[in-house]
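Quick start: what a row looks like.
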Amino acid sequence: MDPRQIDIAQFDYLLPEDRIAVRPMQPRDHSRLLIYQQEQLRERLFRDLPNEIGAGAQLCVNDSRVIPARLIFEKPTGGRIELFCLEPDGNYADVSTALGCRERVQWRCLIGGASKWKSGQVLQHPLPGLSPDETLTAHFLEKQETDFRIEFHWPETAGTFAEVLERAGRIPLPPYIKRSSDTQDLHDYQTSYARADGSVAAPTAGLHFTEALFTKLDEKQIDRLPLTLHVGAGTFKPVTAHRLNDHAMHGEWIQLKKETLNRLRAHTSTRIAVGTTALRTLESIYWLGHRLCLDKNASVDRLTQWEPYQNPADISVHSALEAILDRMEKQGTDSLWARTELLIAPGYQIRMADALITNFHQPRSTLLLLVSALVGDDWKRIYQHALDNNFRFLSYGDSSLLWRCV
C-alpha cells in the first residue's frame, strides 16, 4: 500500500464528547488497559501490565518533560494576549540550547488575541520572585505561514528561558480538554520519569506508570530505556487533506545518545514502545542509520516524512544502529540531535518494536494512522470495543497494549 494515496476518511469514527477524559484516573495505574494480541481482545487494569510482558523485555519510554509553554500577557488597557511557545526559532541547534539561553531568545509561537497586539507594542509579564521592574517582555518580529516569530527579553537574574517559563508559564493542556489548566495539571500532565525539558504536549502513554508499578517491572527484569522526543503541538493537528499525500507532517526534535544506541543494539528480546512518540523515535533512529549505511557521509540532522517509502532497501536494525554509532565515534560525540518528520501510516513496516502501549487517539489523526500501521484494519475493532465498553479516550484516558501483527 502506498500511504500517500490513503483516503483519510477511512480513519474517521464518532467520538462522543463525554468519552473524552478531562482528568486522569487516580491512582494513575488504576486506569483500564485493553490488550490486543494475536487478533484477540481482553481487558485488564494498567497495574496488571507486568503480568502481560515477559521477563527481560525492554520498555522504551519518552523522558521529555512538558514545559509551561503558555504565557498570558495583560495589556495596560486590561486586554489579554496569550502566547503559546511552540518551539525555538531555527537559529538554535536544538531545544535544550534554546531553553538554556539567558536574557533573550527567539521562539515560534501561536498568539491568542493577535489582532489586539498593535505594531511596535512591547508586552510585559511580571516574573514571580523578582522585583516589579524585572519583567519578561515579548517583541513581535514576524508573522510566518502557520505561526509567529517572537523575541523574549528578561533580566539575567531570572536565569535561563526554561527557568523563566517555570516562573511565568502555564501547562498547555490539549485543545480538546475544555477547561483551564490548574495546579493539579502541573503533576497530572507529566510522566513520573520526565527529565528533559522541551515538550508542549505530554507523551501521554507514560502517564499511567507509577513508581510502584516500575518496582514490579524491575522485579521481572524488564529494562526501562529512556528516549527523548520533544512533543510538539502538531501532534494534535488533524489530517484535513483528502489524500495523505497532501498532508505536511509536523517535525519534532529527537536526541540520540550513545548509551541508548548501545542498549538498543545489545537487546535481542521483546521491545515495547511506550507511546507513539517513543515508536516514532525508534523508527526515526533506524532510518537515520539506514541513510548512513547507504552513504557514510550523509547528514543525520533531519528525516523527512516520505523518505522511508522512497528508500526501501532492506538494511538490518543492527547495521543501522552500528552506522550511527560509527558516526558518533568519528565525531567524538556522545549525543546527536535530529528533527524527524517521519509519518508512520498503513504500508509502513515497523522494525524497532514488537508492541505499543498507547492511549486512544482522535479521529483522522496521524496517531491513529500509526496504530493502523501496527495492527492493520483491526484498529476499527479495537476502537469499537473501547467505545462499546466505556473506555476513556485521549490524553487523560485509558490505555491499550497493542501487539504488532506479524
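That is the whole record. The chain has a mean pLDDT of 94. Residues 121 and 362 are 38 Å apart (CA to CA).
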